Amino acid sequence: MKTKLTSLLLLFACYGLFAQTSKAPSKDELIKALNECATYTSTILLDEEGKSRCDYNTIERKWYPYEEPWHTGQLIFGLLEAYKVTKNKETLCSAWLWKE
After folding, report:
1. Residue 63 pairs with which residues in a beta bridge?
2. Does pTM surpass 0.85?
3. Per-residue model confidence as pLDDT tens digits over 26-74
4. Angle at 87 between CA 51 and CA 6, to 5 degrees
5. How far apart are CA 17 and CA 87, in angstroms?
6. Are 91 and 75 in contact (CB under 8 A)?
7. Cβ(44)–Cβ(71) below 8 Å
């Protein structure tokens, strides 16, 4: 039940990305948005060592550590949930920090 609820909340969050448009997003648009979020998470928010980049200073243009274990866990959980919806193998690989 928790997994289904989490997946629904994730889809609902992506739906908010399209709230500015006059028509409801299609399933394909939602899948595309989830894939884009997963790509950003795995290429920007997770560093080369698999740790979360947590606190970005816009003036210095630099990432600072902040509660890395908690943020890393949340990002990996999000990637796993995105995979359950999109079935995108790259998302799953990013969650496990290995690439094919």
Report:
1. 56
2. no
3. 889 989 999 999 999 989 888 888 888 888 899 999 988 888 888 888 9
4. 70
5. 20
6. no
7. no
List for the chain the helix, strand, coil content (%; round to 5).
60, 10, 30
Q: Is 63 helix (H, G, I), strand (E, B) or coil?
A: strand
Chain centre to alpha carbon of residue 41: 5
- Distance of alpha carbon 97 from alpha carbon 46, whole angstroms: 9
Q: Which of 27, 2, 44, 15 is nearest to 87 (CA)?
A: 27
Cβ atoms 35, 87 nearer than 8 A: no
Cβ-based neighbours of 57, under 8 Å, separated by 6 or more: 63, 64
User: Which residues does 98 contact at the CB level (< 8 Å), separation at least 6?
Assistant: none
